[in-house]
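User: Some background: our group keeps a shared notebook of sequences we're curious about, and every so often someone picks one and asks for a predicted structure to add to the entry. Today it's my turn. The entry only has the sequence so far, pasted here. Could you supply the structure so I can complete it?
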Amino acid sequence: MGPAIALRLRQHLTLTPQVQQALKLLQMSALEFAQEMEEALTANPFLEENPDAPPPATRDAATMDDVVVPQESTPGGPVERDQEDWGGANDAQPTLQQHLRDQLMISPMGERDRALAHMVIDSLDDDGYFKISFDELAALVPPEFEVGADDFCAALKMVQSLDPAGIGARSLEECLCLQLRALPENTPGREPALKMCKHLTLLANREWARLQHAIGCDEATLHKARSLIKSLDPKPGHRFGPQEARYVVPDVLVKKVRDRWVALINPASLPRVRLNRAYADAIQAKNASNQSLSRHLQEARWLLRSIEQRFATIQRVADAIVARQRGFFEYGEVAMKPLTLKLIAGELGLHESTVCRVTNNKYMATPRGLFEFKHFFSRRLATENGGAASATAVRAVMKELIAAEDPRSPLSDAELARLLAQQGLKVARRTITKYRALMRLPSVDVRRADMRKIA
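Assistant: Of course. Here's the predicted structure to add to the notebook entry:
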């Protein structure tokens, strides 16, 4: 076949610079948006600060009117927060998890073992202890990966071999023993100190005679071992920097007005920027003879339209969420309804990705606390009567059942599943275990053991 000339019609979508700017502003948090506006005021001569606008949202604000509060962490929750630094370079001391992950990177191991070790590291508390069971961790892994509770035993041993010594311990006794075993074998008092760790109650009560008889040593060796134990760190995780304190400015304030829940844009998040009319009129009077100034003027107008579109979209999504979750604002998490991004997108005539951008890093200040938009989106669980309940509501009911249980006979996961079924909530035992782990609630064995210690 020879060459030929053909004419074809084709349609395709192109993201113009204006659309890209609008999407960029839409997915910013309130603080990031405020910083972007400050940079725009500095770079564009046709923008000026609006003195009539409310004060900008800053980290220094601390009044309830501005509603700047610390971001709450959701332990192990299904929605993990972004961990990038807000201000570029971060001189803060690394966290325990960062310190341990850096060591894992240079440790020879397979990818599967490395992933299990990362899960163990993420489960450590602020003191560096591993307080949950292997069954709880295994319940978080999808069944297709065939990871059992025994697989986490080797992962925990690997984490316990990392620096600092004592990390990953399941009890104070194990923490002290790990630190003692990390010392050279010729350390004075090392062996009797290891034996003494099995009798911490006697050590705490200063029963020296009984303690000396229990470990079989003389008085000098006893006090040498005691001094060695006193030099150990019972909370090895505390020496590392805590997670960086994050502050958020809510984009929306939710209030009850005349028996109706309404969402209002937080005045503190509104930008103090407007078009400088004098400069704009001057450049227009010269018939755009200066191309650079004309471009700046056009960019300023695009920015103002993008700002207006940002807050209009946030308002629409917030109104839809509040309308769908009225029960939550009235009665709490037990009344949370299942909700998806697709449902809100279809209701508002928006693309699902647009709703996703709105829910990222956006917060609502409500009478029940400060919540990210994503908190109101929860998966659907079927009920016995053919209805539906949200996963958030199921977790709230679980928490109430555990709080009301008999401490002498705590509820197992199977019993929790049975009690939920009596309330019409069909939840598998494996799902119960996963939800309990996400809420950082101890297993039935741990709760029973704690009760025995108290008794």
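Suggested note for the entry: Confidence is low (pLDDT under 50) at residues 57-91. The radius of gyration is 29 Å.
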